[in-house]
Write a structure and sequence with these properties.
This protein has a 3-stranded mixed β-sheet with strand order 1-3-2. It is built from 8 helices and 3 strands. Helix 7 (141-147) runs antiparallel to helix 8 (152-166). The protein is mostly helical and 195 residues long. The protein has one domain (2-174).
Length: 195
Amino acid sequence: MIGKALIVTLAAAIVAVGFARHEDRVREQGALGRVASQLAGRPVGVHCPSFLRGLVDIHGDAGRVHFDAQGRPADHTDLSPETCRALRRLAHTDFSCVTSNTCGYAQFDAAWSAHALAHEAFHLRGYEDEGVAECYAMQNTAFVAEQLGVDTEVARRLQQWVWVKGFSNEPDAYRSAECRPGGALDLTPQTASWP
């Protein structure tokens, strides 16, 4: 009898923890969806995989947006487990290393997650071309970081850092010759700041 009670108690505890994690994920997706919606210019959703689904994610992409045969984007993006984890810790990451150029992988991973959310948001806006979505995301990484709790000045430095460390290492399909100050993809050609 004690064995059955222990099993029932353990099962109830596992269900409670699972429910709490589910609720946290739903809140997280809502917050990320609000940020993505601002960049997409329409209401969109952000999906982070559950713990079990995250164990079998084999895509390797930071995120994905499906486009239909007519070139219309879905109403949500599916982010990778790694991107969701990095976004979760973004506001709590110490980015003081950016000014001294001593940051490591953990900081870059966190900063890149903000960039990845911006990139997927521009796909959700309707830009299927990777080079266009990437360029617009490079110019909006600070916006995403700030919306997710990073100090404004730190977010600006992160955007510059992601541009310097990330853009030149991107595959050719993600780099456009027009992604430059004054180029056709410059969202603020009237200012001297870049990205």
